Amino acid sequence: MSNRFETSWGEFDLARFPEDSHDPLRAWDAADEYLLRHLADSATDLSGSVVVIGDRWGALATSLAGHCDRPTAISDSYLGQRATRANLDRAGFDENAVRLLTTQDTPPERVDVLLVRVPKSLALLEDQLHRIAPAVHEDTVVIGTGMVKEIHTSTLKLFERIIGPTRTSLAEKKARLIFTTPLPALARPRNPWPHRYALPDGVGPVSGRTVTNHAGVFCAERLDIGTRFLLQHLPRSEGSERVVDLGCGNGVVGTAMALENPRAEIVFTDESFQAVASAEATYRANIDPSEHPEAKAEFLVGDGLAELPAGSADLVLNNPPFHSHQATTAATAMRMFSDARDALRPGGELWVIGNRHLGYHVKLRRLFGNSELIASDPKFVVLRAVKKEREPRS
Question: N- or C-end of the chain: fewer Cβ atoms within 10 A?
């Protein structure tokens, strides 16, 4: 859905990625508007090094592109970066107008203006503030922005502990700004990320194994109950199958499959740079090449299974998210299921773990023409759908 974003910096047609004319969600919100309005009203000097962290769909980067000397935008979202590129192009900017970095890249050495879009994950904010803090100097302008429901006392304490004294603005349209005065000599605590923990017993091949979680990855400090349930009911894999851990998170499911069948080729894919880095670390810590020289793995940051050739996968395992930032939506799950159908060979299988109330069995029947209940408990279901020679289209 493309919408006209009217700001003091210009008017822009913005869209999320992938673009969907039926999507009612905009590519910006009141927090983006509030920050841009403040920058214009306060005549903030943007002639130096400007860094934007967590710009969700490129609204901030696109608005500032014509007023800064190649600002840097740091994001954990592949889809967010694709949206930013598309929105910059739509606004007539060169692809180099904004320097796009991931949360795994080395941040700039100096920052004169730091703009932070507060993420849903407090851990991701903590990690990013730690990583950017050495580049901040006493004259750096530091401003955060978010919706009121996204900014908590713990949010402000992070800015205080890592950057310096912090205060907030009054709320406008349920959005708020955060103002921080940098103290370069501040004695900051150690960055606790990435975090590692041992898995419990009773979860199949990965029982007792170590998992690595970079900041912002789902359930970074413990195994979530949905994944635990899936690990207890994984399908059998034999021979040189190509198995995909779709939306891999920390990679524990794909690693379990690699331990179950060392001859399988495991593809870990997620739209989060933090997630794929976590999955690779988890896999490498548990798959010893000297013990399993035939083991193969691929780690992809991307838009679902867009990078995989059609009919190239034998098995897809998926625990789909049903939130996009603060919005609850089934669109992501439906795209994952559709992508899996295209990537699977005839006879290939999609296994899904989900909350019972989400009704994934209905969606799978619509796409595949079949859905089998493999296991269930009061909260979760594990479902299997098989790709037929000719599957129905939605």
Answer: C
For residue 394, which amino acid is it? Answer: S
Average pLDDT, the chain: 93
Q: Distances from the Cα of 185 to the Cαs of 130, 136, 273, 380, in angstroms?
A: 14, 11, 31, 49
Residue 97, phi then psi, degrees to nearest 5 = -65, -30
Two structure tokens written together for 30: 């009141």
145 phi and psi angles, rounded to 5 deg: -150, 150
Has residue 49 got a pLDDT over 80?
A: yes
Q: Distance between CA 42 and CA 36 in Å, rounded?
A: 10
| Burial letters 187-205, b for 16+ CB under 10 A, else e | eeeeeebbbeeebeeebbe
Per-residue pLDDT reduced to its tens digit, 315-361: 999 999 864 444 445 788 999 999 999 999 999 999 999 999 999 99
Mean pLDDT of 250-278: 97
Alpha helices, H only, the chain? 30-41, 59-64, 78-90, 122-132, 153-162, 225-231, 252-260, 273-286, 331-343, 360-368
Helix or strand run (H / E) with residue 355: strand 344-355
Radius of gyration for the alpha carbons in the chain, expressed in angstroms and rounded: 22
Residue count (the chain) = 394
Handedness of CA 322, 270, 334, 313 (dihedral sign): negative
Four-residue CA torsion sign, 132, 135, 139, 140? negative
pLDDT at 393: 53
Q: How many C-beta neighbours within 10 Å does residue 186 have?
A: 14
Over the stretch 114-154, which tens digit does the pLDDT of each residue have?
999 999 999 999 999 999 999 999 999 999 999 999 999 99
In the predicted model, is pLDDT for residue 381 greater than 60? yes
- Find all residues with CB under 8 Å of 288, minimum gap 6, and list them: none
Paired tokens of 280 = 């690779």
pTM value is 0.94
